[in-house]
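Pipeline run #58 for the internal structure catalog. This entry was flagged by the ingest filter as a single-chain record with no existing model, so it goes straight to prediction. Upstream metadata was stripped on purpose; only the residue string is passed forward. Reviewer on rotation: M.T. Logging verbosity set to normal.
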Amino acid sequence: MANVRSRTTMSLSTTRPLASGGSLVIDKSGRSKYFGPTAGPEWKKDQAAAARHVTQESRAQSPSRSGSRPQHLRSFFPFEGVQSPSISTIITLLPPYEHAQDLLQSYYRYFAWNHRPASESSIQLIFCAAYNTETSATSSRTEYAQKLALLFITFALGALHNLELPPNDPSAEEYCMIAKACLAEGNFMKRPTIMGVQALVTMGHYHLETEDGRNGDSAWPLWGLAMRLIQSMGLHRDGERWNLPPDIVEDRRRLFWEAYCIDVFQANCFSRPSAIQRRHVDTLFPREDQASTDGRKSFRTAKYELAQISQEASFERDLPYDLRCREALLAATSLYPDPETARNQSPEVNKRNLRATLEQYTLALNISESFLFLQRPYYIAASQESPSDPTLSRFGASYLSVIERCNVIIQIVSGLYELFPNITSRHWFYWYHLFTAAVCFGTILIKNPHNALAPLALLQVEKSIDVFGSISKKFDSPAMKRNHEWLTPDQELDNEVVDLLTWRTELINCVTQDPSRINLGPSSTVSATELDSAAFDALEALAQAAGKSSDHATSSIPNFSVDTSVDEIAVSSILESRDDGRSASRPNGNSFSELV
């Protein structure tokens, strides 16, 4: 397998480095995978691990609940024209009625609070029709097959998140396979329906939640296909312009915005282009999601807005009180230097209200993730421009912004895991972002261990290791265990070897050598009390450094107040730099592996 990294080129007119093109990995069969320059380290780490195995063992086929399940379900998706089981055969594969109700409740409670391409009422109608043996053939065979696909993939996610079932229960994979068979039977690519595309979007979420699909290889093309079908169906144009019935207009709006959001967020994770640009869209938000019962902005509306304006730093300030996450506000020291202010401006965590707590923490995570993807190339550029003190770089505000956001992410994930360990452990995205934040802090320890922020970095890396260690013991997940091992120091290596191996090995180097796991160099001789005290001092230093960056940046940036956050300063500094012609493009230092 060959790793092709784009070479840095120089502009003839400005002699400034152009942006890195990312990484392209090609194996001997010709299969290729591209990661953009700002893709998260977990994707690259997993790719490196895959590259070491020329042949990978395929996942054992899930055991069947009954002998009637067709054994060829994997062979025809997503192509039409291949023999598939009949509707009557698929109906016999439905789970028992009571168990099916339990699966739906698990889906609604533990998954649909975040992603809901189809309304609960729509799924309930399909559920009732599927279990009604006297249902008349009011819909076409194609349409009914796609409805069943939505029902079965809902069962799959329900089984995956059902706390009464073991993690990665085989029945979840079985339901997913049946859903694929239903889509093929429904000829969904040539005759797409709303519910068929809802099933496709939901299927992408399912794959990303499983061990085999966590690398995104299955989810990414499914969501891309869904976005193409959405465009072909005109869902990016609001249905009211054609005087469609209100319920159909709402279904189209909900499906579009759920698909658009996950496409944008996942494109950020992979550092790849999204499927559709905002200027081509005039679809309104679903009405039922625009406001909560008391008239305030809902979680979904805030999520949809974030997908549109992920580069606007002021969005976070405008969140309604009930959607704010206290853990995140306390960790954002430049925005809330006084902890009491952060507490007063956010609701107390309510463990009894699962949905509200999940919404608060996840929205805060999505916001910090957006800042991280925007600022990370400039964070790396600052580390390269001014290694001894990156805050003195022209991108110093970006450096501080990334550190603060990584701190927020680690506090969010560890705090939510402490509240709801069994639920949090089954949502992949929390752990993806925790790993990214830990790797970012690790670069500080390796690049400049004498940095004033190093104690904070060490504390947060150790906290991440502890959380990964805890979840790997409770949750039988090879991916979690690999992340824990990758971050954990190898005590047998002396400092010189650690310094040689740590971060200096390319994250993906499939040609000449095996990538070594990351080992954190600093020894553990410092007591916990001393480390906590030093980390607290580092947090104060972060707030003070943000203030200095504010003084420096706001002298030339109009309309900034004294409570401007480091994120806003960083964004404006970048825009000002571009306007002045000092940086025609994103800096070349786009990958953590390029830091040292």
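catalog note: Residues 93-289 form one domain.
catalog note: The chain has a mean pLDDT of 73.
status: ready for reviewer M.T.
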